[in-house]
Design goal:
- The chain is α+β, with helices and mostly antiparallel strands.
- It has eight helices and eight strands.
- The protein has an eight-stranded antiparallel β-sheet with strand order 1-2-3-4-5-6-7-8.
- Helix 2 (about 70-80) runs antiparallel to helix 3.
- The radius of gyration is 27 Å and the shape is elongated.
């Protein structure tokens, strides 16, 4: 870069490199977060480009060095995310670049990418389909020449209907039936059918709510691609009540049926996902947390678990 003042040579100060820290000490992670980058994952389904928030950090192992070279992290990220679709090996090479640009300063590096995967999903019954945006995250950590951690995070929104509330609603309907139809009089079949199809007949419904499953999956190798849809499908198939995009009346009725056939406390939802993930031999570890955003309460019902009885992450 040339001097801004003609005739005066350019020599800009580099405080981070040239000035020692007044208080020494190694730091585990130093870098930048929430960097805005374009992101299109090399996934197992077509995903349009999105805006990502990227975290890029390295360890600061030299106790007397003032700081790292932040701009080098940004420029390395810009080169990778701007050139096209991104896969796990790209992130692995990016962390290697972080360490090459911080030789003698760092032995660990990480990159974390948060974005939304926009996936087209079919309706339950009709021939329609619609877009669903799934929050996702990719995390890769490197220790010198070794990939130390590979993690995929996904978030799935679903409906949960309370089993207790369903039982209480059925009890009210039973009692209302007893009051409406005398036990000592013959029952008319069509009258009962009509009554069941009326607001007078079904006087109570169970409460249900939009719910969220947050899942983090750890792999012991670099996967072939970023299997976003595969793992989303695993979670949604375990729950059976994922929220829908395009909905006609027949789809809404099918959704009501699924809710009725899959009554879930938060404990049930967490166990369903846990069981499904335990069947996947490619997942080395996982952590999950579900939030049922209660319609009965102003607070959430939550459950959390991981792979194995002694915890995961």
């Amino acid at each position: 870069m040339g001097s801004l003042v003609p005739g005066i040579p350019c020599s800009l100060p580099d405080i981070a490199a040239d000035v020692k820290a007044r208080i020494g000490g190694a730091l585990e992670w130093v870098g930048m977060s929430n960097m805005e980058m374009p992101m299109q994952p090399v996934a197992d389904t077509a995903i349009p480009p999105a805006v990502a928030k990227v975290r890029a950090e390295v360890s600061l192992d030299s106790a007397d060095k003032r700081g790292i070279h932040m701009s080098r992290l940004y420029l390395a990220c810009d080169q990778v995310f701007s050139r096209g679709p991104v896969n796990w090996p790209d992130l692995a090479e990016l962390t290697a670049d972080f360490l090459r640009s911080h030789a003698e300063l760092s032995h660990q590096a990480l990159v974390e990418v948060d974005f939304e995967a926009l996936i087209r999903r079919p309706a339950l019954v009709s021939r329609h389909s619609g877009w669903r945006a799934y929050p996702c995250s990719l995390l890769l950590m490197r220790h010198e020449d070794t990939i130390a951690h590979v993690e995929l995070g996904i978030e799935v929104t679903y409906s949960s209907t309370c089993p207790c509330s369903a039982a209480l609603a059925r009890d009210l309907i039973q009692n209302h039936f007893r009051k409406t139809f005398a036990a000592d009089k013959p029952l008319d079949y069509q009258q009962i059918v009509d009554w069941l199809g009326s607001e007078e007949g079904i006087i109570a419904t169970p409460h249900s709510q939009r719910s969220t499953a947050i899942v983090r999956l750890v792999f012991d190798h670099l996967p072939d691609n970023i299997a976003i849809q595969h793992h989303i499908d695993t979670v949604e198939n375990a729950l059976q009540t994922a929220v829908q995009a395009a909905v006609k009346r027949e789809d809404e009725q099918a959704f009501a049926l699924r809710n009725g056939q899959n009554l879930m406390f938060c404990e049930d939802a967490a166990r369903r996902i846990q069981h499904a993930l335990n069947q996947d031999p490619h997942i080395a570890d996982f952590w999950l947390r579900v939030h049922h955003h209660e319609s009965l309460h102003p607070h959430d019902a939550t459950a959390e678990t991981s792979k194995g009885v002694n915890g995961g992450l």
